[in-house]
Amino acid sequence: MRLKATLWGAAAALALVPAAAMAERERGSSGHLNIIYWQAVSTMNPFLSGGTKEMNASSIVLEPLARFDAAGELVAWLAEEIPTLDNGGVSEDLKTITWRLKEGLLWSDGTPVTAADVVFTHEYCTHPEGGCSYRDRFAGIESVVAEDDHTVVITFEDATPNPYIPFVGAGSPIIQQAQFQNCLGARAPECTDANFAPVGTGPYVVTDFRPNDVIQFEANPNYRVPTQPYFATITWAGGGDATGAARAVFQTGEMDYAWNLQLAPEVIEQMQSGGQGELLVDFGPLMERIELNFTDVSADLPDDERGTRMHPHPILTDIRVREALSRAIDRELLTEIGYGPTGRATCNFIVAPPAMASPNNDNCLVQDMDRANELLDEAGWERGPDGIRTRDGMRLELLFNTSTNAVRQDFQALIQQWWREIGVDTRLRNIDAGVFFGSDPSSPDTYVKFWADVQMYASLFEGTDPTPHLEQRRCGREPRPETQWPGQNINRYCNPEYDALWAELNREPDPERRQELVIALNDMFVQDFAHLPLVARGRVSAKSTDLGGVVMNVWDSEHWNQAEWYRITE
Amino acid sequence: MLNFTIRRLVMAVPTVIIISLLIFLLLDLAPGDPTAQLPLTIPLEVRDEIRLALGLGDPVIVRYFKWLQMMLVNEPLHALEQVTGWNVAPDTQRILSWQSRSPVGDIIAQRIPQTLWVVGMGYLFGILIALPIGIISAYKQYSWFDQLGTFIAMVGFSVPVFFTGVVLILVFSVWLGWFPSMYDTTLRVTDWDSFMRQVRQMVLPVSVLALFNAAQISRFMRASMLDNLNMDYVRTARAKGLRERTVVMVHVLRNSMIPVVTVIALGVPSVFSGAIITETIFRVNGLGALLINAIYANDIPMIQTLTFIFAVLIVLFNLIADVIYGILDPRIRYD
C-alpha cells in the first residue's frame, strides 16, 4: 500500500515536470518564430503607410501609451495608468488629459524614453507636408506639452468625452525623437534607414528589412519585462497569396502564424482538417453593407448637381421601397456562401463592441418575399408584363455598383435574383478596387461620388468608440461637388432627429449612457432602412497548434501581446 | 559590323525615350489612386495630404521630366557610387517608391538575385531540355520519341503554370514533404548544407518554368531542323560520305540554330521581368512579384522604372539577336 502511494507520488511529480518547465520560460527560450503576411510589409513606419499590414508589423517595435486588449478594454502600455476623471488624469471640463510614462523605460538603443519623445511624435505626424496617414488621430488638439520628463499634457480645443485617441492603439505609437528629428515633413521619406528600422520600446528590434519581402527581428535587449519576449528571433515573411500562406500553416507547417486568410469557406475547412493549425477568428466593427442612395444620380443632370441633395432619388426616398429591398435579402445564405465561419449575418450599423451592438433588429435576418411584395404594392409599384414593376411610366430599375472581388460578385448575382423576384430590375457593375475606393475627384466611379442607385462595400471604425463613425451620417456631411467630394455620409442621409441624438452622444461622458445612445442611433438609422447591413466580417488568421500565447485582438494590432507568444513543448 | 552596332545603339536612345514617355502618360491616364488600398478609416482629407506628399500635386509633364532626370542621371550615379565607393552622387534626389518610400533602385537591386537564380535557371534548363528533344524529334520524325516530345510540349504549352505549380506543391511539399513550398530569400549559401537547401527550394519553381520554356523552344527547334533536313546541301553532305553524326550535328544543326537563337535571345528580357504567376505561387519575391505588387498598389514610380528597364532590355536583346544572327550566318552582313 505504501509502495503504491509512493509510486503514485512519483508519477504525479513526473506529470508536473512539463508544467514546471513552462513556468520557467525566459527571454529567447522559445527559439525562432515564422510569420507569413501574404500581403508583404512595405515599411516599418506606420505613419508613412496607413496600411494594416504595416501597422501590425511595426506594433512589435513601436508602442503607444495605451492600447486595447482583446475585449476592447484600455490597458496602460507605456503609461503608468489610464488617466480618468476619477484619478484626476482627465480634467473636469474634459479638455485636458495627463499621461504619465512608466519609470525606467528604455529605447532599444539603451537611451531613456521621455515625454519629449511623445511631444515630438505629435509634431512629426501633424507636420503639414509630411502626409502622415494617422494625422486625424491628432485632430482637435490644441497642444501637447511635456510637463516634466515623465508627464505629457494634451489639451483639446473642445470638451472631448473620448480623449483616448492620440497615442492610443497601434495606429498612434511613439517614435524616438533622436532618430526622427531630421525627418520632419517633406524629408520624411528620405530617412529610409529610420523608416525601415525604427528604434522602439517594443519586444523586438529589426535586424534586416527588405521592402515587400521579408523582415528579420531579434529580441530587444532593453525590453522592460526581463523574461520576455519568449521568442528570440522572428522571420516575418511576405508575399505569395492567401492560399499559399494558409497551406504553409495548415499543411506543410513551414509557418507558425498567417495573417488575413480571406479564403472561400470550403478551402479553409478542407485545409483545417490536417490538424496542424487552428483558425483564429474574432469580430470587430467591419461590416459589409448595401448603401441606398437618397439622391438622384440620373445622367441627365449636370455634373455639379448629380448625386447631390438638390435632387432626391425618385425611387429610394420611399421607405417602403427600401424596406422591401431589405426584406428580399437572405443574409444568412449570403454569409454562408461568402464567409462561412468568418462572417455573421447582421442587421446593425454598429456591430461591435458587443455591448454596443443593438439587440433590436434581428427580424431582418429572415427573408420575407411576401412582405417585400406587399410593401411595393402599397407604394404603388405595379408589375408590368415582364415581371418588373412600374409606377407612372417609370420602371423600378436600379444600378448596383461594387468593387471587383469574387465574393462581392456572388453577392451581386444572388441579390439581383432576389430583387428580380419582387419585381425590381437590377443592373450590375463591378469596378476595380483601386478606382472604386480611390478618391480621384474626376473619376465618376468612386464609392464617395456614388453615381449609382445602390452600392456594396465594407466599412469600419478605429478603436472602440463609434461616435465619429455615427457622426458621418449627419446632415451636411455628405460628399458634394463644391468640396471636391470629401465626406463620409455616403448615402446622403439627413434626419434632424438623428443629428440631435448624435449631439447628445458627443457631449455624454458616462459610459453606460453612451452605450444606450449608440444603440438608439443605430436603431434609428437601420429602422429607417437608410442602408442595408449584410454581414459582420471577422478578422481571420491562423496559427500552428504548437504556438501558444496568441490572443486574437480586433481592437488593436493582432500582435499586441507578441512578447508573450511561446512555443508549446511536450 | 561594329558600325552597324553603334548605329543601332544610337538609334535606340530616342526609341527608349519615346517608350518611357508613352509608359508615363499611359500610367497617368489610367484610373487609380495610390491611397485606394488604405483602410476606409483614413479620411479623404488625410488622403489628399498623402497624395501631395507623394508629389502628385505637380503637373504630369513636370513629374515626367523629374523622373527622367532621376532615372538617367541620379540613379546611374548612385549605382556607380555603390559599386565603386566613390562619392559621386551626394544628396541627389532618387526615385522613391510610393509604397515603401525608399529608393526603387535599391529594391530592384535586392530583387534581381532571386529572379536571376529562379527564372534564369528555369530558362537555362528549359533550353538544355528543349534542344536535344527538338533535334531528336526532328531526326526521328513520327517515332515514339517524337510523339512523346510532342505530348510533353503540348502539356507544357496548354497547362497553365498556376495549375502545374499548385500540383507540384501538393505532391512534393504537402504529401511527400521533400521540398519547401515557400522560397526563403534570406538564405545565404555559405557551405554545403545551405547550398543543398538552396537547391531544394529552387527545384519546384525551376521545374515549372523549365517545363513551360522547354515546350516552346523544343517546337521551334524541331520545326527548324525539319526544314533543313530536306535541303539539297544535306543530301550533298551525305553524298560526300560524311558521317551521319557530322551531317546532323554540324551541317544541319548550325543552320537550324539561326531562328532558334533569335527566339532564345528575344526571350532573355522575359527572364528579367520575372515570372509573375510562378513567383507568386512559390513566394519567390523577385522582379515579377515586385511589378504585380506595384500595379496593385498603384505605385507608379516603381511600375514606371521597372517597365522602363524592361523596355531597355528588350531593345538591347533585339540588337544582340541581330548581331548573333550575323555571326552564325556569314552571308548576313549589315554594312
Automatic annotation (TrEMBL), chain A:
One of its GO terms (cellular component) is outer membrane-bounded periplasmic space. Residues 73-434 form the Solute-binding protein family domain. The keyword Signal applies. It comes from the Bacteria. Its main location: periplasm. It is found in: Periplasm. One of its GO terms (molecular function) is peptide transmembrane transporter activity. GO terms for biological process: peptide transport. SUPFAM superfamilies: Periplasmic binding protein-like II. Residues 1-23 form the signal peptide. Keywords: Signal. Belongs to the bacterial solute-binding protein 5 family. This is Peptide ABC transporter.
UniProtKB/TrEMBL annotation, chain B:
Keywords: Cell membrane, Membrane, Transmembrane, Transmembrane helix, Transport. Gene3D superfamilies: MetI-like. Residues 112-321 form the ABC transmembrane type-1 domain. The keyword Hydrolase does not apply. It is a multi-pass membrane protein. It comes from the Bacteria. PROSITE patterns: ABC_TM1. InterPro entries: BPD_transp_1_N (IPR045621), MetI-like (IPR000515), MetI-like_sf (IPR035906). SUPFAM superfamilies: MetI-like. It holds the Pfam family BPD_transp_1_N. One of its GO terms (biological process) is transmembrane transport. It is found in: Cell membrane. The chain crosses the membrane at residues 116-139, 151-178, 198-215, 258-282, 302-328. Belongs to the binding-protein-dependent transport system permease family. This is ABC transporter substrate-binding protein. It comes from Rhodobaculum claviforme.
